[in-house]
Amino acid sequence: EFGASLLQVSLQRHLEILDLLLAPTSADAYLVRMVAFVAEVPRNFFQVMELLEGPDLFDFIAARSVTVPEQAAAALVQMMATAVHYVHTRLGIIHRDIKPENFGFSRPVPGELASPIPPLKLFDLGLAWALPQPVAESSAHDMLELQRSGTPLYMAPEVWRGRCGPPSDVWPVGLITFLLLSLELPFGLLDCRSPMEAVTKHPLAFVTPCWDAVSQSAKDLIASALDTDPARRASAGTLLSSSWLLA
User: Fold this and answer.
1) What value does the mean pLDDT take over residues 118-139?
2) Signal sequence span per UniProt (predicted)?
3) 158 with 143: CB under 8 angstroms?
4) Regarding predicted confidence, which is higher, 67 or 19?
5) Predicted pLDDT of residue 41
6) CB 84 within 8 A of CB 170
């Protein structure tokens, strides 16, 4: 009985979040819009989402043999940060599973990344959690006690400790930015048994030769997004106002 009650509450919360995505918004360019959902009592529901005709960001990166040019990477990061900023400040939710697989291009991507780059959109709110109210930038570091959830490789340090908040969605944006510019992940994440162990043991470093050609402003943005202390970590809005994305 308790399990059924918990499932009902979880389903209701998810439907409330999905309902927010039904209304057209100014963030439609970078957030997958839900066209409709149909609930079937007691436990089933179906959602119809906007069609994305391009690859997800993971497949886009995996198919590359060279790093993403810095100007194109900045355009992609701006789209990601805009989507994250919107879900925090307007929808009042934490996504909780930001990763390359949950960003998709609305159209096929030209191999040469010619401008304009097709819109990159955030989707999959299956783990999203509603905040008490949409957060303002000044209160974006409020944290909640939540069960650890997400994709381990992209989870922020505090999530491993059972705490989660808007800053926890910014950490993976920093990881993805690092990945775009180097085709690798920081902290030796792929070489350690545990992502948390990797982040604890290894400092953020830009040591491979590819970083010699990357601007300091790009490195500064990455460092601000990958601060291990969520209270010091940049918000999505702060990323959007960074010199790298405004250049």
Assistant:
1) 79
2) none
3) yes
4) 67
5) 61
6) yes
| Residue appearing with tokens 């490195």 | 219
Return the SS3 of 34.
strand
Q: Which H or E element spans position 123?
A: none
Query: Residues near 21 by Cβ (< 8 Å), separated by ≥ 6?
Result: 31, 32, 33, 34, 91, 125
In the structure encoding, which two tokens stand for residue 43, read together?
């436990």
pLDDT (mean) for 110-138: 80
Report helix, strand or coil for 135: coil
Closest CA relative to residue 123, chosen from 185, 181, 179, 57: 57
Displacement of CA 197 from its chain's centroid (Å): 22
Average pLDDT over residues 213-228: 98
SS3 of 198-240: the string is HHHHCCCCCCCHHHHHCCHHHHHHHHHHCCCCCCCCCCHHHHH
Spatial distance between the Cα atoms of 23 and 155, rounded to a whole number of angstroms: 30
Q: Model's pTM, two decimal places?
A: 0.88
Contact 97, 126 (CB under 8 A): yes
Q: List Cβ<8 Å contacts ≥24 apart for 57-60.
A: 57/100, 57/101, 57/103, 57/104, 57/105, 57/120, 57/176, 58/99, 58/100, 58/101, 60/100, 60/105, 60/109
What are the structural domains, with CATH classification, of the chain?
51-246 (1.10.510.10)
DSSP string, 154-208: G--HHHHTTEE-HHHHHHHHHHHHHHHHHSS-GGGTTTSS-HHHHHHHS-----S
Enumerate the active-site residues: 97
